[in-house]
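pinging the channel bc i need a second pair of eyes. not urgent but kinda urgent?? the chain im working w is below, pasted from the shared doc
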Amino acid sequence: PLPVGTYDGSIASVTAKLLKRFHYDRRGLDAALSERFLNRYLEQLDPMHIHFLKPDIAEFVRWRDRLPELTVQRGDSSKANDIFARFLQRVDQRVEFVANLLAENHFEFTDDDRHTPNRKDADWPDDIETARLLWHRHLRYEYLQEKLNKQKPEQILKTLSARYKRLLRSWGELDSEEVLQVYLTALSQAYDPHSDYMGKAQLENFAISMKLSLFGIGALLRSEDGYCKIESLVAGGPAARSKKIKPNDRIVAVAQKDLETVDVIDMKLTKVVEMIRGPKGTEVTLTIIPADAADPSERKVLTLVRDEIKLEDQEAKAKILDLPEANGNTVRLGVLDLPSFYATFDLGNSRRIQLASGGAPPELKSTTADVQRLLTKLQAEGVNGIILDLRRNGGGSLEEAIRLTGLFIKDGPIVQVKDADGDISIESDPDPEVHYDGPLIVLTSRFSASASEILAAALQDYGRALIVGDVSTHGKGTVQTIYELNKFANFRDYNAGALKVTIRKFYRANGWSTQLKGVTPDLVLPSVANYLEVGESAQQYPMPWDSIPSAMFERLDRIQPHLVELRRRSETRQAQDQDFAYAREDIEQYRKLIADKSVSLNESKRIKEKEELDAKQKARQEERKARGESKTTIYEITLKNADLPGLPEPVAPTNLLANAEVDLPPNSNAPTSEEDEDDKTPSVDLGLEETKRILVDLIGLQAAAPPPPAVTVRK
């Protein structure tokens, strides 16, 4: 085992005590949390249950009940190093075994054997012989993946050999500080998935990473199961603009311009990030496995040009759509795209901004002020209804979410916040003015999180807006803060790191928590995203959903009277729409994939399956190309032209209305792979297309039946 650092035990003890003192649950390290603690540590080291053996686990479990005494009272973190040493031993055994198999180079794929690559719910191998059978089968799976992607045998051997050497090297290079970080992260996440320990190196690199994040592809990455996974995309960044990459996609290879592609499976996340980042204007090519891939061998290759992530790219923007109707009339809709709730420091704190910038204060940015300008423009141009698109909105400023909600209601509570002492505070709309009072839909997805969930929930509680989208939003209803350990103990000149800990929970105006369950739309649209393992419910040990008493507010009830009819009309359209038929096919294919979990290791069967999928996709492309040109007129409204009189020139018509939603701007980071060059047909933004039709229905229904009087919802 690695030697225990001088302060490791003290850091572990202080971390455990701070979690008990500050975490929302105010729990000490009891028996239940000790079990979670040990489980999380083992899962972080071996998430696929492919290295540790059952006898190893049995030995570690005997230590479980001693963890509170060792961690809190004795300040002893040595078990972290003992377990890690056993893990390295098993990794070394696996790498040596695989090296021998690669040297023999005898791989056949003609039998009916199957492999389950995702083993997170499987048991650990019984013994070393069982483990070797598993390692052999997984190697065959990896070899076949490369072969199906038309790699030559010598290149496959080179790729896999390098991958396993990297696996051993990346773990073997960890020092005691890094092992302690993994260990205490497991302790923190035994409480909830958003509490976290940041060790010395991670804390010191925080400021650097914040600066570097402004230059690159605009993606937040995380390491999971040996893969570099897309956590989220920055609006306006190269990755988001490409429309070819999305959350939960996995990056399996990276290449710099004119250089050889580098396999990054089992590579340390910091190394992958370093490869993806780079100077502005340079190219990086990514090979990804799409999150919704029908076959795990599916790969997409795209080249992005690194760029500075500009604030204006993340700003609110809008479109005005003139939709022709069957009766010859035209209905005008507004679509507000809001990627985040942004703000330049706290409003009114100009002195702080001036000190931070070293000069005159820059222009204050406010989501609410920007959306208000766009709403003014949309209303001046006579829109009949508005869609607020929050599908990419991962949150941001709580104050901005509250103020922006107030643009659509007169006054009243927006969100309730409960702390660890049980004290409840109510955050209310501070402005009695209603800036837009017409038909309104909020469009959400599984990736709408935090502040965007608060806005959607409030407008749903008030009966002010129809919520449309995926089966639920993300479900993050908690608040975290950071405590530096050096402020609570004397570590002399040593940086002991910091603890991010959950301290509060959010609740809707009606008293329901947004935690875990998120916001359930009034109208759920079919989507593969409804079946992805994303959101708070996919996390390990999430905090539970609960409720508190409702706040007092006036419910407008503008949606409920029409909800049954809106659903009926939408379901009728979905049954007749070809793109929804495609969506249902994709959903059924994906559900079969996740239900089976195993993958065939028969090469001919896999090739046949891939050919069938390719043929189906090609037929869809041809059908979409054959559709007539859209008669919808689209005007793009930005903060630069929002205050100008009249409308800008409409965007060019396309064969699909959806193309205007996803088309790439001139000189953008267009994909350059042969596969993508062959596919000139845009993807249909089915969720937005149907939401526009639902909004047209809502406009007509609300015009025909004025809303009932507001009803006061009391505590």
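so The radius of gyration is 27 Å. and The CA atoms of residues 410 and 433 lie 6 Å apart. — does that match what u expected or am i reading it wrong
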